[in-house]
Amino acid sequence: MVPGDLVIKNLTKIAQENNIQSGWISGIGAIESVSVGMYNLNTKEYEKKFFNDEYELLSLSGNISIKNGVQFIHAHIAFSDSSFKAYGGHLFETKIYAAGEFMIHKSKCTIYRKFNKKIGLPAWCFIND
To answer: Is pTM beyond 0.90 here?
Structure first.
């Protein structure tokens, strides 16, 4: 990816254009405008935080699955600032600042997501019912 690209948006587009139903994603790069969260099981809501600076993307790890009939990207990231302080969490979206290098490893099986009332989120389900 190149400067200005939105990571989740572009990974979703790549998965859709290449008909990747399920897979594994990893990546590194330089990012800015980072929106991350931490899921609170008690409230069943994400506690969101926005970082509005330039950061080193230390690691992005995620997956592609099918949610409501379309490809869904679920990713977590670790990133650091210019003082080498690290942050991380569930990635909602971020923008490429300098470069983004990502790999997608396509899965042989299709992984679906189905809403799980107990946790309050769509979780993996290997049977599409």
So the answer is: yes
